[in-house]
Amino acid sequence: MTNAFYSQFAGNAVKSSVLSVEILRDALLPNLLGDDSSGILYWAGKDLARQFPVAGNDDLVTFFDQAGWGHLIIDKESDNLITYELTGEPIARRSFAIKKPDFMLETGFLAEQAAARTGCVSEAKITFQNKMRLRIAVTVDHNQPLTAHDPATPIEIVRPEADQATDGDDPESNADES
């Protein structure tokens, strides 16, 4: 169901309303969750990462763009630390509209994606945040392997632009046929 769910919406040309997403994320959830909102959103991000595992960094970047979470950049990557930078219109919009925007959903998602890839306990935290970007550091603890770790099959990332170019609809590729 997860791959079909993702494919149906990621490939849809009609994008969801930003207003509907922001109402749920920044008005409803904080009121429902109260003071525990950040912690719950972190664990919700980890749960979403288990539902929507991605195969690698390129897929992770694409998924973040498609989810409307912003433009993800892998800043540094070592054996036990991955540093990401998250920028773009979604970050700026939420930062200017909301007094203290919460990005723990994204933070938890990155922590769990690292755990799935390494098979080790991974935790993430925001190490820098301003109105235009934030930096998230994911620490991988190789001394704590996940027990009964059975990696899920990654979802197939939908790339509409790439799919269209292979359909033979590219004007330049059809020029030779004339």
Report on this structure:
A four-stranded antiparallel beta sheet has the order 1-2-4-3. It has a single domain (2-144), classed as Muramoyl-pentapeptide Carboxypeptidase, domain 2 (2-Layer Sandwich), CATH 3.30.1380.20. The protein is globular, with a radius of gyration of 18 Å. It has 178 residues and is α+β, with helices and mostly antiparallel strands. It contains eight helices and four strands. Residues 164-178 have a biased composition (Acidic residues). This is Hydrocarbon binding protein. It comes from Lactiplantibacillus fabifermentans DSM 21115.
Q: If you compute it from the alpha carbons, what radius of gyration comes out, rounded to the nearest whole angstrom?
A: 18 Å
Strand % is: 15-25%
CATH superfamily: Trafficking protein particle complex subunit 3
Strands side by side in the biggest sheet: 1-2-4-3
**Helical content band:** 40-55%
CATH class group = Alpha Beta
Distance between the termini: 44 Å
- Count of β-strands: 4
Structure characteristics:
178 residues; alpha+beta; Muramoyl-pentapeptide Carboxypeptidase, domain 2; four-stranded antiparallel β-sheet; disordered C terminus
